[in-house]
Design a protein that fits this description.
four-stranded antiparallel β-sheet, mainly beta, 43% strand
Length: 296
């Protein structure tokens, strides 16, 4: 008898929960209806690099159906004062792509990053449908004139000595770019590390014109290159161009070997800064091999 009463009480409790869930007093809010046009941004990457003299840049919207003309408002989450952008874009009848032009109206310094973010109202997108196009897009905009000049291999004897992994010792497939405006070379992200910048007037004729100098992105000398690697409790590892027994920096070595393309060999050492002093790690060298591209 007691068992039957227990089941009766439990059943009444479940019924009360059921009725409560159907109450008009709950806070349920239905999601927005999916947009009927499935408009999105074409994936053009997050980095837009412009020429030094650029006066505008573009991005592209797409839609699934080209039926009828369609005007889509644009919402700018972040737009620098140097840019002027339209409030909407129109798809012509029959078109599934529409290009938006953003004008550069202010003084946009070269070699500086500008963040730009724009989105489409939900009623024009289809937020419940999987698509390769995006309802919002962010761009990092910069003016620069870097062009590929050499290929390179970074040989890190230090990394091999620390990890014991020979596959990490040499990083190939790197591109050395040159900016005529800054008179500066760079190698983007060596194995995930910060971009390497350096000045150098060496040419591929066997002459040693001068010693390379590490710099920051603006061309100001910085002494050593912070590799992004850390060593034990010592801290950040820096790469310095090597010096001889007299403390004089070693000029790049121009190497010509039978059966191999000629190259410049830039040798250096890995140090850390500890208590204001430079400490050489493991007494090993890193090397940067720079090769001319086809046609150089």
């Amino acid at each position: 008898m007691k068992l039957n009463k227990l089941f009766l009480i439990a059943g009444m409790a479940l019924m009360s929960l059921s009725f409560a869930s159907c109450s008009d007093d709950d806070d349920y809010t239905p999601g927005k209806e999916p947009g009927q046009h499935a408009v999105g941004f074409l994936n053009e990457g997050s980095q837009k690099t412009l020429p030094i003299d650029a006066t505008s840049f573009t991005f592209t919207l797409v839609r699934e159906s080209g039926e009828g003309a369609l005007t889509v408002p644009l919402t700018y989450v972040s737009i620098p004062e140097e840019f002027s952008a339209p409030e909407s874009v129109t798809f012509a009848d029959g078109e599934t792509e529409a290009t938006v032009t953003v004008d550069i109206v202010g003084d946009m310094p070269a070699f500086e990053d500008f963040w730009f973010e724009v989105k489409i109202p939900e009623e024009f997108t289809n937020q419940y449908k999987e698509t390769k196009n995006f309802p919002s897009m962010s761009f990092n905009i910069a003016k620069e004139d870097y062009v590929p000049r050499f290929s390179a291999v970074y040989g890190s004897i230090f990394i091999y000595a620390v990890t014991g992994d020979a596959s990490q010792a040499y990083i190939d497939g790197l591109t050395v770019e040159y900016s005529e405006f800054l008179k500066l070379y760079r190698i983007k992200s060596v194995n995930g590390t910060p971009t390497l910048y350096f000045k150098w007037t060496g040419v591929f004729n066997g002459e040693k014109k001068n010693i390379p100098t590490f710099t920051n992105a603006s061309g100001k000398p910085v002494g050593g290159y912070a590799t992004g690697w850390t060593y034990s409790s010592y801290g950040t590892v820096y790469f310095f161009f090597g010096a001889d027994e007299n403390g004089q920096l070693i000029a790049p070595e121009f190497v010509e070997e039978a059966g191999y393309d000629p190259y410049w060999k830039l040798s250096g050492e890995c140090d850390v800064i500890r208590d204001g002093e430079y400490t050489t790690l493991l007494s090993v060298d890193d090397e940067l091999y720079i090769y001319p591209l086809d046609g150089e």
